[in-house]
Each structure stands twice: as C-alpha cells, then as structure tokens.
Amino acid sequence: MRMNVLSGGKLQMPRHVYFPDADRDQKIELPVSCFLLRHSKANVLFDTGCHPKVATDPEERWGNLAKFIQPVHNPGDEVLTGLAKVGLAPEDIDIVINSHLHCDHCGCNEFFTKATFVVSEKELDVVKDPDNEGKGYFRADWDHPMPIDALSGERDLFDDGRVVLIPLPGHSPGLTGALVGFDRDGTLLLASDAVNLRANLDHDISPKNTWQQELLYKSYEEVRRIEASGTQIICGHDAEQLMQMKIGLEAYD
Questions:
Q1: Phi, psi for residue 131 in degrees, rounded to 5
Q2: Edge to edge, what strands does the sheet with 27-39 contain?
Q3: pTM, entire model
Q4: Element at 33 (helix H, strand E)
Q5: Residue 194's closest CA among 247, 152, 138, 233?
Q6: How many helices (H) and strands (E) does the chain have?
Q7: Beta 42-46 vs 116-120: how paired, if at all?
Q8: pLDDT tens digits for range 105-151
Q9: What is the DSSP letter of 115?
Q10: What b/e string do you get for 36-46 counting C-beta neighbours within 10 Å, with b at 16 or more?
C-alpha cells in the first residue's frame, strides 16, 4: 500500500483556541490535509478537505463561521488538484473515509460520485439534527446521493491490518482515526482532530473547540497507547509536523 499526503486547504484561527495562554489577537495557521491510500483492493481517500469555493468566497459556503475560521489558501489548493498531480480523478476513488463531518474535512465530498462514504453513525446523527447546521457542519458538504457505510465501532477496512478505523471521540461525537500500515514506513495513525496539534497531546491541552473534554482525554490516552507500540501519530492540523512529512508526489509505502 502507498499513501500520498495532499493539501485540503489552509485555515487561520485565533491561537488561544489551541493555547489558552495566547494573546487574544494572535493567530495560528492550520494546514488541512487529505490522505490518498492506494490499497490493492481500492483507492481510498481519508478526508476531502475544504470546498473549492471557500478560497474565494468563504462566507457563501460557511456563513458567519468564516469570520472565525478563515481560509487563507489560494484557489486550487485543494484535494482535487492534489489528486490530479498524482494522476487520479475523483471518479478513481472507491472509498472516502470522513474522519468527521466538519466543513474542513468533508468539503469536497460532492465530487466523489463513484465512492462509498465511510463515517461514524454518531457523526451522522449529529449532522442530521438541524440545530447543528452552521456549527461546523453544513448540509451542502455531506448530504449527497452516494452510498454511506455507517461505522458503529472499530473496523479493519480490508481485513488485512492495512487500514484499521478506530473511534477517537471528543473533538466531535463520531471522530474516527485510521491506523495505516506500510511495508517500509511502518504504522501511522491518522488522528485527524483527535490531536489537532502535537503540543495539545504533549501538554494535555483540550482545545476550546472540543465537543466533550472528558472523551477527548480518553482519546488522548488511546493515542498514547498506540504511539507506545511504535506508531507515528499524524496530527490533524500541525504545520510544523507537516513540514517534516512526505507530501505530494513523495509517498509512504
């Protein structure tokens, strides 16, 4: 199996969301990443990033949320462009895994019309509640006619240990991480926003955009247990970590 790390955009947010001691006027830039997994049985995409429109008119897509979560990437800096650079089109993707259904993780779902979507049933329950519309969730991102495979717990996607989906709730009710195994590069945990930044995990910081703090700390414990086995933890939005990773055409295998 091989994995390419593709850009899904870039966001700017108040730094104090992730570091409580930061000044209120400080900002932090957060890369959005998508992960293309080329398994012998299927092409799998873990998260689809931001919708292309948010690069030019974020308020049209995200409304008032765009004043708090500000896209700062250039037009074309999204997963569709990244896939084209590695020789694939959206119709080449067989399975899309949404770690959760916040707008920066499922914004391009609509383009993957040939795929089956794998997402936690708890996350689906949240988005179907109209009271949650606009609170990080937008029906335009997730409500599409493609088939949905609802997760109810841990699952080995291909029954071979290569892509194992594990619940890591806390940031959102149904957040799902992916434990992915490679012949040369070992095992990586795509933790998504269960670990937004490495410093959050290292210093036991619960970001302010956490849905349920108690569950997040339990997920931190699970992530640490997985890391202790020799697995590399890939954080959801850590710019410093991303600079040290293989990205684009350079693949994990």
A1: -65, -20
A2: 70-71, 2-14, 27-39, 42-46, 95-97, 116-120, 148-151
A3: 0.97
A4: strand 27-39
A5: 233
A6: 7, 12
A7: unpaired
A8: 999 999 999 999 999 999 999 999 999 999 999 999 999 999 999 99
A9: P
A10: bbbbeeebbbb
